[in-house]
Amino acid sequence: MRKVITYNRKASHDYFLEERFEAGLVLQGTEIKAIRKGHAQLKDAYISFKDGEAYIKMMHVPPYEFGNRFNHDETRDRKLLLHKSEIQKLTQKVKLKGYTVVPTSLYLEKGMAKLEIALAKGKDLHDKRNAEKEKDAKREIEKALKNHY
């Protein structure tokens, strides 16, 4: 069973999300406690690759309120646990023009913190406008059908 902690709504607004992957997180002591309480943000977070390993940067996990002096740094780089073939595939795609890897959601599964990441291509301004128009049209149709019955 999944307990979703947070979504990155900005990712689907700014990017075309193409392929999704599930990654584990390497966390320090009080980080998992803060995440279990629902305190985490993916708003400005992004994924980077270094020496054949993936890291999430700028993911904000506030200090655990009952933590002591060993509390964690709020925006430290956290290592992602992915298969080697997935990391190689993602690094090859990122080297291509316009591709990036963004976190889409953070959730708990069987007590473990998991991060859903997506291979994404940036949207232009006119793409964002078209997506907004499509959403509005879909909403209007659903509203009309709801009132019709």
From TrEMBL:
Taxonomic superkingdom: Bacteria
Region (Disordered): 127-149
Gene3D superfamilies, A to Z: 2.40.280.10
GO terms under biological process: trans-translation; trans-translation-dependent protein tagging
The keyword Lyase is assigned to this record: no
Pfam family, one: SmpB
MF terms in GO: RNA binding
Annotated GO CC locations: cytosol
Subcellular location: Cytoplasm
UniProtKB keywords: Cytoplasm, RNA-binding
SUPFAM superfamilies documented for this protein: Small protein B (SmpB) (SSF74982)
Main localization of the protein described in the UniProt heading: cytoplasm
Family label: Belongs to the SmpB family.
Function of the molecule: Required for rescue of stalled ribosomes mediated by trans-translation. Binds to transfer-messenger RNA (tmRNA), required for stable association of tmRNA with ribosomes. tmRNA and SmpB together mimic tRNA shape, replacing the anticodon stem-loop with SmpB. tmRNA is encoded by the ssrA gene; the 2 termini fold to resemble tRNA(Ala) and it encodes a 'tag peptide', a short internal open reading frame. During trans-translation Ala-aminoacylated tmRNA acts like a tRNA, entering the A-site of stalled ribosomes, displacing the stalled mRNA.
Protein name per its UniProtKB record: SsrA-binding protein
Gene (name only): smpB
